[in-house]
Hints:
Blueprint: H1 2-7, H2 10-22, E1 31-33, H3 41-46, E2 51-54, H4 73-82, E3 87-89, H5 104-113, H6 130-136, E4 143-146, H7 150-159, E5 163-167, H8 177-195, H9 209-213
Parallel strand pairs: 1-5, 2-3, 2-4, 4-5
This protein binds magnesium ion.
Residues 55, 57-59, 147-149 line the site of magnesium ion.
Protein name: HAD-superfamily
GO molecular function, one term: phosphatidylglycerophosphatase activity
Pfam family, one: PGP_phosphatase
Amino acid sequence: MQRLGQSFNSAGIALFARVALSDQPLALPHLSVPDIRWVDWNALAGAGFRGCVFDKDNTLTEPYQLELHPHVKASLEECRRAFEGRLVLYSNSAGLQQFDPDGKEAAVLERALGIPVLRHRDKKPAGGSEDMERHFGCKAEELVMVGDRYLTDVVFGNRNGMLTVRPAPFTAKGEPKAVLLARAIEERLVKRWQMAGVQPPPHPLATNPAAAAAFLQHPDNW
Ligand SMILES: [Mg+2]
């Protein structure tokens, strides 16, 4: 039941409808990668970014799992070093007041993954940047948002002026049906908009696609 509640995100659906009708750039990430190994964290830190905000399911772990996916372990360590530990997990379950009022789930995740979980009130893509800005002590546009969902993570990051990175999900295994359906719809829409030439919102530290591409690396480096 709780999973159903977590996957039904009415504010998110309403916001995505608005994005689809009038603000398509918000759904498009600045960087699309197969997984986070393709991101050059040192280049991002060198360009002036100050910290990273991660989604959990299908970004760092398989859905509802507590272990880092083997593909991301070394990259996450690299990210931690590049940003001197300034990483945070922003989940639509753990740390969300509605589902985790006493922060128990957040504490379990923090122990399992070794990343602080931001306590917050709103589900992505709703919500502003105050909690993140307070946590990091910088502007949201100096932060990188990394998450697999266009509807939640990318729209949330772009609405708050962050640089958005979208890794492909690891697996459909364990995803609630509502999420699979939402994923299919948003992937189709995003593909259509990309083919029509829609670009993500401009970001001051990545002014065009070529500038954003400088933050990519080939995982053969690993
Ligand atoms: Mg996710």
